[in-house]
Design goal:
With 371 residues, the chain is of the alpha/beta class. The protein has 11 helices and 11 strands. The longest helix has 17 residues.
């Protein structure tokens, strides 16, 4: 048994399908009654504590789905810089999430999720990832004393595979597309393994909301537009809900326009956003430099598209050549990112003239992770 027997307070989640609350015991990754995904029942809140580099995003934990007495397992995530660069006589701000402890924004979600897992008595868990989420979970699981087994597609970059192994996690390589890796992980979960899924479990969304909080604090206002890569879409959901919390608290007057970016080789959300039901016929899972967003069937796709629409934003798609050009363009400006992050560059060039400022792009992971 990998979950403690103690009964803990309910998380503030409910199944989006049947409406049942998250159970008091165990850590199911989806609703035991209908198989639906869990999500927050109430809006998130912005209630920061004093800045303290030692606890990272823990200063926002009042809004996290954690019991007050739960131990916070931090590696100093968050507090990433907001770097300004002039492009075509416009100042653009880049949120440098690659400066998190394991080199990606996933650390924010992993800190919240592993703290919840440890508080529930979990001793061993599995996760699936194209690399960044696996590295983040492996690192924070090690921090929290949880044994981790990470399923990754065999094509995941060598640096990511070695990084996961360096934290002591067991790596299971799966041949085939990204979706095959998820299928293998689900099969293990059905056998009883605790599935610490960054896609299914909503804890990570609370961690990603802190990006919006920090952007607001660093700018002193809300940006007009935020451009970010989209795979599963939990990053976009987190940023959206973070700004919604700021709006509800009266800190900002308007939500920023969210612009999600996908690679044309695998762009399901872009296809549906612009083509509706007919867009489903355009979807494929082709190979792409942007391996971190190669997700054929995003679990929270409907919610992601609603968030984009509610913000007045849009979904964009970029070509492989543009991704490579974006990686080089960012590198020549001192920003060394992996190709998945680089999808924001061609998207920025597309929207720059028509958008006011301030405009923020999120750089999700380090170029040191790329093969």
């Amino acid at each position: 048994m990998t979950v403690g027997t103690e009964v803990r307070p309910s998380f503030p989640f409910a199944c989006v399908n049947c409406g049942r609350a998250y159970p008091h015991e165990g850590m199911p990754y989806r609703c035991p009654h209908c198989g639906g995904v869990f999500d927050f029942q109430e809006p998130m809140s912005y209630n920061p504590g004093p800045a303290d580099p030692g606890i990272g995003i823990g200063r926002y934990r009042a809004g996290f789905p954690l019991a007050p007495e739960a131990r916070w397992h931090s590696l100093g995530e968050g507090g990433t810089p907001l770097v300004s660069i002039d492009i075509d006589q416009r100042t653009i701000y880049f949120k440098c999430e690659y400066q998190n402890p394991t080199g990606s924004f996933k650390d924010r979600g992993a800190a919240v999720l592993t703290s919840a897992l440890a508080d529930a008595g979990v001793e061993e868990a599995i996760e699936d990832s194209s690399g960044n989420a696996g590295a983040a979970f492996a690192a924070y699981a090690a921090r929290a004393g949880i044994r981790a087994r990470i399923f990754i597609p065999d094509y995941a970059s060598g640096p990511k595979q070695r990084q996961i192994e360096s934290y002591g996690a067991e790596v299971v390589r799966i041949l085939g597309p990204r979706s095959t890796t998820t299928e293998a992980t689900l099969a293990e979960a059905e056998k009883g393994a605790v599935y610490a899924s960054h896609a299914y479990l909503p804890h990570v969304i609370a961690g990603f909301a802190t990006i919006a909080f920090e952007i607001y604090e660093q700018l002193g206002r809300a940006p007009s537009t935020v451009v970010l890569p989209v795979g599963q879409g939990t990053l976009l959901l987190g940023v959206y809900r973070g700004f919604k919390a700021l709006l509800a608290g009266g800190y900002i007057d308007k939500l920023p326009e969210l612009i999600g970016v996908q690679a044309r080789a695998c762009a399901p959300l872009w296809s549906v956003f612009h083509g509706g039901g007919a867009g489903l016929t355009w979807i494929s899972e082709g190979e792409t430099l942007a391996e971190g967003i190669r997700i054929l069937k995003p679990l929270r796709g409907d919610g992601v598209l609603r968030a984009v629409e509610a913000s007045g934003g849009t979904m964009l798609v970029v070509e492989e050549a543009e991704i490579a050009e974006g990686r080089d363009a960012l590198g020549h400006r001192g920003l060394y990112v992996e190709p998945t992050s680089a999808v924001v560059w061609p998207a920025l060039l597309e929207v720059l003239e028509a958008r006011g400022g301030p405009l923020v792009a999120i750089l999700t992971a380090s170029g040191l992770k790329a093969a």
